[in-house]
């Protein structure tokens, strides 16, 4: 089956390609279901690991999800690209091969199949996330965005109005630009989303609150606030089945140490917190976040920033209930939100992200930026800006419909530019996943002491970058069990001291050395357990070391051999 990255797959076509990859790579890929959506659609979940090397729960795990917001369909294609990269590089790329042999990657490429179905429908409709009516059961008065003229696009409507705040660009009649405070004496317009107006009185046009106003990325438990304080939050944390499925999966999979959630747009790598400054984060964890983010910037070109400090929608407001905040704050899991694609920076408006004007730029920017964007769209996606056509609107009368096709310009890249945008994300995902903690036996020693008594010492080490807890936050939240070493004895044998299970605490990786400026490298990545074993008949002992986020390893040794 052909897998292309110059188009966007609907639910059927996406599932078909996931099933194809699972069938073609049956030894390392399995396709399952995370749960069901509000409308009863399956939420696909792909598990990537070499099943011959052990079950997934005995391996460090990395999580990738995408398309939690309905129109952010680039994320689903990026997740599919990562999956495709993993299976095609397996056996050829040593890092990918190690990840699949020794770890597991869980990929949920479309958390929101209901919303994506609307966005990709031949007569599209845009919702933020899910399709359950919220916060009101009925449509409220005002303008609701939809495809009014039936051309398969949701564009814009303009109405000539002397008090309007838009005017036609002198560069191209399709482009509308903001009217400046001093502009007088010209032709001005009101620009609105293409849509219908519920209960229009002939005079007042309001933008209606969304009939389906849920935001799944405000429905996670961390810092959750009700609708009056955080729009889209849902009735309670985890109230939506799609989010409940994620919460349940995380609870059942304590092996997850890191995560990416793929969104659009802005070309940025976002990290917690959304509602608090960096000063509130454990300093060591902050340094780890920054180090991983800097590597992500090298691989993708996307700046890495704190949501609280650099990505706030309003300078006096914060968001709550976000996935990455919940993953870190409640679970101690390192999680980034990847905001894929950005039309202005793709067009060469470099100062926008360089100056960290991710949100502020949308409010105010020089007219020259609009001209750069226009030239870029005309060169790469001329269908992204439609000519204005007269239309007799059922409520508003004579209007014009045209302007931006937002779905494939601002919200997502034009299909021809999709692969170039998402390809670097595979390198970032693979590089991040490769930082997993990894248990290994450093030494297993058996010495006969006489009288059928044997001294056994098992030394394990963490060979990964991250500690066996992943973060200091995980330890504080008691979200990650420490390393255990267990001994199983042969028949007739017994211990002369201690317990067969020894908890040795967490083992550091290299991540806690980020703040060290001069040589100070203790062996804090190692731990040991010791036993005295009485074994009159000799035999073999079996050793097992495990930590959920660092994996499980086993070893056998002979007593008296």
User: Largest beta sheet: what is the strand line-up?
Assistant: 1-2-4-3-11-14-12-13
User: pLDDT under 50 segments (min length 5)?
Assistant: none
CATH fold name of the largest domain? Aminopeptidase
CATH architecture of the largest domain: 3-Layer(aba) Sandwich
Strand content: 25-35%
CATH superfamily of the largest domain: Zn peptidases
CA radius of gyration = 28 Å
CATH class term of the largest domain: Alpha Beta
Largest sheet: 8 strands, mixed
In total, the number of strands is: 24
Count of DSSP helices? 14
Question: In whole angstroms, how far apart are the ends?
Answer: 55 Å
Mean pLDDT: 96
Helix amount: 10-25%
The backbone outline, from C-alpha atoms, is elongated
Whole-number total of structural domains = 3
Class inferred from helices and paired strands: alpha+beta
């Amino acid at each position: 089956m052909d897998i292309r990255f110059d188009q966007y797959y609907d639910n059927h076509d996406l599932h078909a390609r996931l099933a194809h990859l699972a069938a073609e790579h049956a030894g390392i890929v399995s396709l399952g279901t995370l749960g069901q959506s509000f409308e009863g659609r399956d939420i696909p979940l792909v598990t990537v690991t070499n099943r011959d090397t052990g079950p997934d729960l005995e391996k460090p795990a990395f999580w990738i999800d995408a398309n939690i917001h309905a129109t952010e369909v680039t994320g689903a294609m990026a997740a599919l690209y990562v999956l495709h990269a993993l299976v095609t590089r397996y056996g050829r790329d040593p890092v990918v091969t190690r990840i699949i042999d020794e770890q597991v990657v869980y990929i949920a490429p479309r958390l929101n199949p209901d919303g994506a179905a609307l966005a990709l429908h031949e007569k599209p409709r845009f919702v933020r996330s899910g399709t359950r009516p919220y916060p009101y059961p009925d449509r409220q008065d005002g303008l609701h965005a939809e495809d009014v003229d039936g051309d398969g696009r949701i564009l814009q409507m303009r109405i000539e109005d002397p008090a309007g705040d838009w005017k036609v660009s002198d560069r191209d009649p399709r482009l509308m630009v903001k009217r400046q405070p001093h502009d007088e004496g010209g032709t001005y317009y009101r620009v609105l989303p293409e849509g219908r107006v519920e209960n229009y009185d002939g005079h007042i046009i309001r933008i209606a609150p969304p009939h389906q106003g849920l935001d799944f990325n405000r429905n996670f438990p961390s810092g959750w606030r009700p609708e009056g304080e955080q729009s889209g939050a849902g009735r309670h944390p985890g109230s939506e089945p799609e989010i409940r499925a994620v919460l349940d999966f995380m609870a059942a999979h304590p092996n997850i140490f890191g995560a990416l959630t793929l969104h659009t747009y802005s070309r940025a790598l976002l990290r917690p917190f959304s509602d608090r400054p960096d000063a509130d984060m454990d300093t060591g964890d902050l340094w780890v976040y920054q180090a991983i983010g800097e590597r992500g910037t090298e691989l993708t070109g996307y700046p890495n920033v704190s949501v609280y400090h650099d990505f706030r929608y309003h300078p006096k407001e914060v968001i709550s209930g976000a996935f990455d905040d919940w993953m870190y704050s409640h679970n101690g899991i390192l999680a980034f939100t990847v905001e894929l694609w950005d039309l202005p920076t793709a067009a060469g408006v470099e100062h926008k992200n360089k100056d960290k004007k991710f949100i502020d730029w949308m409010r105010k920017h020089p007219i020259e930026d609009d001209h750069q964007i226009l030239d870029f769209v005309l060169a790469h996606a001329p269908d992204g800006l439609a000519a204005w056509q007269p239309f007799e609107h059922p409520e508003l009368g004579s209007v014009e419909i045209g302007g931006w096709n937002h779905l494939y310009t601002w919200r997502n890249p034009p299909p021809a530019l999709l692969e170039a945008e998402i390809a670097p994300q595979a390198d970032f995902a693979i590089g991040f996943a490769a930082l997993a903690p990894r248990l290994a036996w450093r030494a297993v020693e058996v010495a006969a002491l006489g009288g059928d008594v044997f001294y056994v010492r098992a030394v394990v080490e963490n060979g990964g970058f991250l500690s066996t807890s992943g973060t200091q936050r995980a330890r504080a939240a008691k979200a990650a069990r420490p390393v255990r070493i267990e001994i199983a004895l042969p028949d007739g044998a017994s211990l002369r001291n201690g317990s067969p299970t020894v908890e040795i605490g967490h083992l550091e990786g290299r991540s806690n050395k980020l703040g060290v400026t001069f040589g100070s490298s203790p062996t804090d990545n190692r731990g040991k357990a010791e036993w005295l074993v009485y074994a009159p008949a000799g035999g073999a002992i079996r050793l097992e070391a495990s930590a959920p986020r660092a994996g499980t390893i086993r070893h056998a040794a002979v007593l008296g051999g």
